[in-house]
Amino acid sequence: MKPTQLHRVTVIGCGLIGTSIALALTRAGVEVFLEDVDVNAQMKAQLMGAGKELAPHAPPADLVVVATPPAAVVDALFDAQTRALGYAYTDVAGVKELIWQEAELRACDLMGYVPGHPMAGRETSGPEAAQADLFEGRPWILCPYPTSQPEAVAAVAELVALCGGVRRDMAPEEHDEAVAAVSHVPHLVSAALSAQLADVDAEVLGLAGNGLRDTTRIADGDPALWSDILSQNPEAVAEVVDRVAAQLAQAARELRDCGSDGSTTVDRLLRRGRNGRSALVDAMDAGPVGVEPYAESCSTPALPSDLDEASALDDDYVVGMAAIAELIAEVESGAARDEGTGTGPGEQAPAAAGDEAAGPVAEAAAGGKDADDSGSGASAPDGAADGGADRHDGAPEGRDEGAAESGDDRGRPRTPRDTAQGSTAQGSRPDADGGGRYRTGGPTGQAPRLS
Asked: Which of 2, 168, 302, 451 is deepest in the core (most CB within 10 A)?
């Protein structure tokens, strides 16, 4: 599919996930810019065609993707918002509840931030392992805040679609419990099983088949990254580990006590294991369950006159446009009288001629006002409506340059959020000139640099 809202995206973090996202977006025609404290990783991603280096004073992106390890997400988000790197923000960390809470405590902007987690990966890490199709058909979980703006959610939803993912919305705690069961604990169990092989003689290991290779494959993941992930989701992981450990401990006791007579516990465990494997395969074959269709969930934000909550903010506009329409009607009716009667300026024209000439125009003006009051935007001048669409659909370079020069982004229609009084959420702020596209940012003051 072609991008409709995302024309410029900044990816912070050039590891496996960040570079894979950048490759997928570049393939879809999105202009991607990269930033990473690891210069070598960023250079590798650039050489792979994932994007360009982010310039110091580059125009803000439509979306900023924070693709750092979980422990660094909030710092990176705070820093990016303070530098006003984009209009909307998301992350890809494998844990959500702790980050969700810390971002709020850190006073990050929560209106433009939509936490996310693509359920995809590989046992290898780094930009060299990245793939543009890594997310094809895979669930991509979003955990928006109650304050997350529809435009920000729509931008992240388009990111998911452009990468081939299937959007799924979940609460942060629900997400962490789910990934503990299907991702975190399996990795830990695989690591524990693999650890028992570290001191086994090579000749013995040579007897192993593909089954052992399969069950230990994911243990090859980056230990530092996985230690970070597990430490960010301790309660949910520990609860599942306790259950697995209790089942194995009971099986071990019965094996010792029963000997060759067999163990009912072991038998039940093996049967449940087989049933669980079947359930897993069936669920994966059926494919992930997503939310509402993408076209409905993240269409281009409507003009203010199409938004119910915009009616109050548009009252002055409606009154002004109606006054202009009436003035035009008067001028046109006067010109019609002059032309129809041959009278000059200031001469009295017959009343009937004036009424006939002014009638259609007055009706048009009245009809325009009614349409605008109803939320259709019909009374807006054609030039204004068409110009807005052209600017939105135009080349991203033009839009970004305009935003950089004037502080007013002409690539998105104004929304009530743009003209709302002051700041309505932690760290949120409009553009410097008080208008234009909504910008996000952390609280005032210098943000810590990434380390």
From this structure: 168
Tokens standing for 423?
Answer: 């700041």
pLDDT tens, residue by residue, 315-358: 444 444 455 556 555 655 654 555 554 544 444 444 444 444 44
Residue 407 gets the label, from left (phi > 0), alpha (psi -120 to 50) or beta, of left
Cα separation, 147 vs 109, in Å, equals 10
Reported CATH class of domain 8-171: alpha beta
**Amino acid letter at 141?**
I
- Residues paired with residue 140 on neighbouring β-strands, in sequence order: 118, 167
Any idea which fold 177-286 has? Answer: 6-phosphogluconate dehydrogenase C-terminal fold (1.10.3660)
Q: How far is CA 328 from CA 123, 317, 335, 336, in A?
A: 69, 16, 11, 12
Question: Can you give the pLDDT at residue 2?
Answer: 64
d(C-alpha 73, C-alpha 114), whole Å? 12
Low-confidence ranges of the chain (pLDDT < 70): 1-3, 259-261, 290-451
Query: Could you give the CA distance from residue 195 to residue 193 in angstroms, rounded to a whole number?
Result: 5
**Cβ atoms of 31 and 396 closer than 8 Å:** yes
Of 138, 14, 40, whose CA–CA distance to 32 is shortest?
14
Q: What pLDDT shows up at residue 328?
A: 54
CA–CA dist 268, 263 (Å, integer) = 9
Which bin fits 383, alpha (ψ -120 to 50), beta or left (φ > 0)? alpha
State how far the alpha carbon of 152 is from the alpha carbons of 28, 100, 322, 350, in Å.
Answer: 20, 16, 33, 58
